């Protein structure tokens, strides 16, 4: 299933299942979406949670939690040799392709609202699934 979004330059942007999956699995919170945007515009080799938190206006703990999720997803690797925990990206070409698509959507007219809507729909679906499972319906 895909959806269409008209960008400012009047081209249609098709949100395919790969991009919806990326949002659902990787960019599944506003903090993670903002960190991904930071990665895109600051493609450094080492990421520091404190500096990212300052740059995006979030608490360092929120950023650390998101970065640890990215480690679990195989997108980052933690380096413990630095004075504070730091992270480096793994070699993952499909991630970079998906990140490019995500950022084009995220920064388009109404893109942030659409991403939030996808995240909310996913969260509502998960709540429904977990409630149905606990009631023995799944």
Structure description:
The protein is 58% helix and 12% strand. The two termini are 23 Å apart. The model is unreliable at 5-11 and 128-138 (pLDDT under 50). It has 138 residues and is mainly α. The chain has helices at 17-25, 30-41, 49-56, 60-72, 93-106, 111-134, and strands spanning 3-6, 12-15, 76-79, 86-89. The strands form two sheets. A two-stranded antiparallel sheet has the order 1-2. The chain has a single domain (3-16, 30-134), classed as Winged helix-like DNA-binding domain superfamily/Winged helix DNA-binding domain (Arc Repressor Mutant, subunit A, Orthogonal Bundle).
Attribute tags:
138 residues; mainly alpha; two-stranded antiparallel ribbon; 6 helices; 12% strand; globular; disordered C terminus
Regions with little confidence, pLDDT below 50 for 5+ residues? 5-11, 128-138
Q: Report the top-level CATH class.
A: Mainly Alpha
CATH architecture: Orthogonal Bundle
Could you tell me the strand content as a percent range? 5-15%
Tell me the domain tally. Answer: 1
Topology at a glance:
Blueprint: E1 3-6, E2 12-15, H1 17-25, H2 30-41, H3 49-56, H4 60-72, E3 76-79, E4 86-89, H5 93-106, H6 111-134
Antiparallel strand pairs: 1-2, 3-4
Provide a short characterization of the protein structure.
The chain contains six helices and four strands.
């Amino acid at each position: 299933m895909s959806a269409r979004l008209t960008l400012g330059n009047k081209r249609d942007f098709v949100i395919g299942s790969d991009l919806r999956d990326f949002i659902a699995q990787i960019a599944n919170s506003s903090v993670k979406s903002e960190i991904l945007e930071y990665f895109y515009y600051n493609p450094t080799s080492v990421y520091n949670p404190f500096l990212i938190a300052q740059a995006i206006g979030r608490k360092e703990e929120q950023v650390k939690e998101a970065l640890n999720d990215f480690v679990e997803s195989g997108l980052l690797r933690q380096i413990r040799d630095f004075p504070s925990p730091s992270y480096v990206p793994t070699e993952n070409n499909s991630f970079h392709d998906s990140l490019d698509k995500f950022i084009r959507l995220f920064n388009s007219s109404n893109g942030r609202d659409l991403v939030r809507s996808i995240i909310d729909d996913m969260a509502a679906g998960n709540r429904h699934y977990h409630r149905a499972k606990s009631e023995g319906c799944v």
